[in-house]
Amino acid sequence: MNHEPYKLIAEDFSPVPSLDPSLDGTEPELHFVDGFGKLDAIGVLVPSEGDVPASVGLHRETLESAGFDAKPGTSLQLANASGTLVVAVGGGKPGSLDSDGWRKAAATLVRATQRHSRIGFELSDTAGMDAERLGQVLAEGVLLARYNYDTLKSKAKGSPLAEVQFLAPGVDTAAAERGVATGRVKVRATTIARDLCNAPPSHLTAAGLASAAKELGDRFGFGVEEFGKEQLIDLRCGGLLGVNAGSAQEPRMIKLTYQPGGSPTGHLGLVGKGIMYDSGGVSLKPSDPMHLLMKMDMGGAAAVLAVFTALRDLGCKASVTGFLMCTDNMPSGSAYKLGDVLTTRSGLTIEVKNTDAEGRLVMCDALTLAVEDGVDGIVDIATLTGAALMSLGQLTAPVFGNDQRLVDLVLESGGRADEQLWQLPLERAYRPQLDSDIADISNLGGPYAGSTTAALFLAEFVGETPWAHIDIAGTMQSDKDDAWRSKGATGFGARLLIDLAVGYSAE
User: If we measure between CA atoms, which residue out of 450, 228, 264 comes closest to residue 354?
Assistant: First the structure.
């Protein structure tokens, strides 16, 4: 008897379910109002000092006795005779909330009302906040905090968010609504990055990411060019091909292009590491929780692809070219080995001293191609080193570079996106650690400063082109729901790089 082969992947699986209306319903309405309509829950911003808003219905002593101190990030659900839940949201000291504070306050409210579909947020103390900026960060806080990756669950949890009303007396409503529209675009990009990172490696291969990129390009107005194995051989991309040697799945380089109308303000190159699953190769990783997370080792590529979905809608005036370097890193009889020497697009040869230091190998070819394209600056983003996680944890990503102007632009964009960065030195004194006896360079430095030696390796391939490198190994995922970060993939880097690209100009 003949049987159809068992399919591990559902035919209707979407790598970006957040964009599929059949899976997530309609987009929630977000708008500023003069008075609340019918709602399931109302959040009220409560400062930690001074008067408590009357709509809370309780004195400060009563709130404090219930354990609510009104510090940022705190909330307290209150029973109400009307049947509408009231949630006190901590606002901290009066006048202390900046953009990040408002984003987190909105996220705090949404997390406290997971079972409710129609929510209001009564704002106070918005003096000094630009109305458009306020609308943007509120939209980001609400929508990012409500994100869930449940497309593979048989039964989703929580209630879909249908509407959020913002009551903000004195705020320019038209400007705030424009900000909401901007926030939606940036959140859409971030959720695309999150979806791609959360997808199981069995469901999303390098070829699958290329297909998803083409669909997104058609929808959001950017060009996509796919390079398969034979084309990569012709391009002499020995780094990517070497890492791919042990895989049953073919590699892909995905080139993304965006051109603005009129004369561009500059040409920005973006490079994303796209290791679809990282076993470590012959240098096999231990079977621990971090190994489970290696489906997210393509977080850099996901962030770069997500950026391109926002450029047209936000009116980016720079030309932007992206390179996604995609393969998994697997052990097999054909896998690359310690002691192998790879020849890269640049002509430099690399001695392999550890097959789990593969990200830098796939990215070096892309850096060379970006330089050949004549970009004015390059920013690469990669889940590159465990040392980044050990040194700065899960909230802050290190950034390195050879050009302080570009590094400063990246840092400023990270500040506006609340995607925390910290510049670390590109200490050239450590470069001899990468020396090889038999090749131009090796892919592994010494036991210390691993993030720095990885950055020094990448620096070999950019020449004099201004370049910055963001290591998101620590920030790619969150172990818990935390403000706008939902448990799982964070999409870190998408909003940061959107901000950079939209404001980018050549020096």
Answer: 450
